[in-house]
Amino acid sequence: MALKWIIEDDTYCVCPQDPKFVQRYILALFYFSTGGGTWNECNAPSNYSDPTEIALANANCTILGDGPDVTNSLTFQGTDAWLTPSYECYWGGLACRESTLCLDRIELENDGLSGTLPFELQNLTDLHYLIVEEGTTSGTIPSEYGTFPELIILDLNFNNLTGSIPEDIYNLPFLTQLDLNDNFLNGTISSAIGNLEGLQLVQLQVNKFTGTIPETIGNIRNIFVLEVFDNQLNGTMPNIICQSQNINRSSFRLTADCGPEDDPRVECDCCTDCPTFK
């Protein structure tokens, strides 16, 4: 559908030789893969070339991709509906860098996305923020997402994702936030998570993870939020995590299934909370 749209229906008329042709195609692919047309906002016009329909679609799009940016990059964004004949960086929920015109951010929260996440997003190599939350997106997390060279935040919480966390995700060199809570993810939490030395926030709660909490998390020096409650984890919270230099910070949060009624249970004397959601 995305290929047909960009060749036959896209009145913006980007030439295949244009260096941003691939970027526009991948975003169209993302739209169709995640239930575009049934989103809450920013759906494509019913007629791609009718000015009245385009204006109506734009009026029903208010989402800005303008969340906090730790890199302080100069970006621009807009609130045009998706697949309208404007530069794709102006489609709602997106932001691009002024210097390169490359996509910097996808930020769609509570917009009714469904379907699955396309692996082709891996080709958006300048992407810093991939935030697709509070929808019904299902399927697995593509292992190809572990190849993003500059990704800072991966936030896919409150969806219907299944499967395990791909091992490749633990190779993201600049990741600071891994936010996958409230899905149906399973398997174990790999010890390779310790490779993510820049992690500050890890939210894996309300999933179906099994096994124990890896000691290697204790090697992540700047982590101040680690939430793993409402899973099927067991064992003991590694002492190296309890001895973290951040544990006395007021913002530090460490949770697990450590309550007296939890089964299976994680022994944790240093947890800040033992939520009970089961």
Describe this structure in a few short sentences.
With 278 residues, the chain is of the alpha/beta class. Helix content is 12%, strand content 19%.
Keyphrases for this structure?
single chain; 278 residues; alpha/beta; nine-stranded mixed β-sheet; five-stranded parallel β-sheet; 12% helix; 19% strand; elongated
How are the elements arranged and paired?
Blueprint: H1 2-9, H2 21-33, H3 51-59, E1 75-76, E2 94-97, E3 103-109, E4 129-133, E5 138-139, E6 153-155, E7 160-163, E8 177-179, E9 184-188, E10 201-203, E11 208-211, E12 225-227, E13 232-233, E14 235-236, H4 239-242, E15 253-255, E16 266-267
Parallel strand pairs: 3-4, 4-6, 5-7, 6-8, 7-9, 8-10, 9-11, 10-12, 11-13, 12-15, 14-16
Antiparallel strand pairs: 1-2, 2-3
Please state roughly what percent of the residues sit in beta strands, choosing from under 5%, 5-15%, 15-25%, 25-35%, 35-45% or over 45%: 15-25%
Low-confidence stretches: none
**Helix-strand pattern:** HHHEEEEEEEEEEEEEEHEE
Mean pLDDT score? 94
Rg, rounded, reads 20 Å
**Head-to-tail CA distance between termini:** 41 Å
Describe the biggest sheet? 9 strands, mixed
Total strands: the figure is 16
User: Number of helical runs?
Assistant: 4
Strand order of the largest sheet: 1-2-3-4-6-8-10-12-15
Structural class of the helices, strands and pairings? alpha/beta
User: What share of the residues lie within helices?
Assistant: 10-25%
Shape: elongated
